[in-house]
Amino acid sequence: MSVSTTSAAGPSPVVIIGAGPSGLLLARYLQLHHIPVKIYERDRCPTYRPQGGSLDLHDDTGLKALRETELLDIAQEYMRPEGEAQKVVDKDGKVLFDENVYGENGALVTHFEKTNGEIRGRPEIDRTDLRNILIASLEPDTIQWSHALKSCEALSSTLYQVNFHSQPSITTPYLVGADGTFSHVRPLLHPTKPDYSSVSMYDLNISSTTLSNQPKIQSYIGLGALELLGDGKAILAQMNSGGKAKVYVGLKVPERWQDEHPLPDEGKRREWLATMFDGWTDMAKEVIMASDEEGIMQRRIYQYDPELRWDTELTGVTVMGDAAHVMSPFAGEGVNQALADALELGQALVRVFTPPSRRVSLAPFPLSLFPISPPPPSTPRIVAPKPEALHSALRAFEKGMMRRASEEMRGSKENMDMFFGEEPAQALATFMENVMSPTFMVKMTLDASVKWMKRLWNN
Ligand SMILES: Cc1cc2nc3c(=O)[nH]c(=O)nc-3n(C[C@H](O)[C@H](O)[C@H](O)COP(=O)(O)OP(=O)(O)OC[C@H]3O[C@@H](n4cnc5c(N)ncnc54)[C@H](O)[C@@H]3O)c2cc1C
Q: What would be the CATH architecture of the domain defined by 6-79+123-194+305-421?
């Protein structure tokens, strides 16, 4: 199959590799603006593999991207504001920080509320729910499942051949790599690979039945997340929707440690993991032993140097999300940055694919810079962009993306060093208390204003 560069019906589709949060949100944004798009995804179907735990969405990135694609209302139905409650415990079981609220009988109560239909703070949403919402928002057949990208090559500076495992190759002038940490699109732009972060993890699940039968485990985790830290190890347990929980066991170990210490046969896995916490509070072993023996997964955490930048002579290709700037998950920023990338890339593409006179506003004037009235129905709304315009739009997008993401990459690394460093529980508890203090709030507001002004200035 070949996607031609132009056709009588208009420009050829933007080709996105990867149906993760960034690829899906970009496709949604482009379809809202009548730009044809196809996603090629490795998985066989939406339910092919578990999508992981809970994500917290931030106002100026993740929530903004959902708002701008008219998906915030539906996403709010799945958000759990109470999931923000954090609890920090040291290896001896001492609770150093706890945002849960307890009733007179010691039962957990939530003080997080929806206000005026808007969610406050940084609400949690299950990754599966977010992905399903995004998939359902797309036109039928936008996603081509079972298309695992093998390699990409530049046929010229404006045309790319995309080769799949077990599927015919395609060519496209517009290629976006949203294919995660080990992107196969990225080598077109630069050869740098992400570094191992020094942390490897195991993912475990606690069923809703176990949690309702074992109130002690629920009380350990609280309504949001438990961070049990010490000795270069971490147990991070977080509530997910439907009363179930996800448990991440993190270890500061060399990159090949998991290969050299493979998980034992099923039936012995939880016990094997639990022995790593000998000498810790019983809470550690109890949380691991309450998890399911089946479905334990292992993963290594990778990250890019925040100073990473690139330039290219190629015109219609770019990357976003983890493919561009993977960071460790310890600041909860990865998905937020990925969604912000998709929104900003979508805006950049709409500008080059849509002549100003034909732009349609999605937001009422004056919120949008676009004119409010739609063009006459007979006028094609989009045109193939001029190569120079596309080239400068994509390079400007990449510069802005990396400038924004690099601050969060630094923060994620600092947090990871704190989680696995000296006196981690005390350090995290102090950090959390500072974050909650009014002085810090004022500083954050000032920092956010400075960031906003810098971005405005740089653009
Ligand atoms: C353990 C863990 C916990 C995390 N917790 C948080 C958190 O709390 N908050 C937060 O903000 N972020 C968190 N993150 C990070 C977050 O999940 C990512 O930053 C985010 O998912 C990036 O989105 P993406 O669309 O760029 O890539 P991905 O989500 O990685 O999606 C990439 C897509 O591309 C597909 N793909 C990959 N290779 C190919 C190929 N060769 N061909 C075709 N398709 C391909 C994949 O199947 C996938 O669908 C966490 C990450 C980890 C590992």
A: 3-Layer(bba) Sandwich (3.50)
The Å distance, Cα 380 to ligand 1 centre, comes to 35
CATH 3.50.50.60 for domain 81-121+199-300:
yes
**192 close to 312: Cβ distance less than 8 angstroms:** no
Other C-beta atoms closer than 10 Å to the C-beta of 297 total: 13
- Give residue-wise pLDDT tens across range 260-303: 999 999 999 999 999 999 999 999 999 999 999 999 999 999 99
Burial 364-397 (b: 16+ CB within 10 A, else e): eeeeeebeeeeeeeeeebbebbeeeebbebbeeb
Q: Which atom of ligand 1 is nearest to the CA of 335?
A: 11
Kindly state the DSSP code that residue 80 receives in the 8-state scheme: B
Domain locations in the chain as residue ranges: 6-79+123-194+305-421, 81-121+199-300
C-alpha 274 to ligand 1 mean position (Å): 27
DSSP 268: S
Binning the chain into helix, strand and coil, the percentages to the nearest 5 are 40, 25, 40
Contact 413, 306 (CB under 8 A): yes
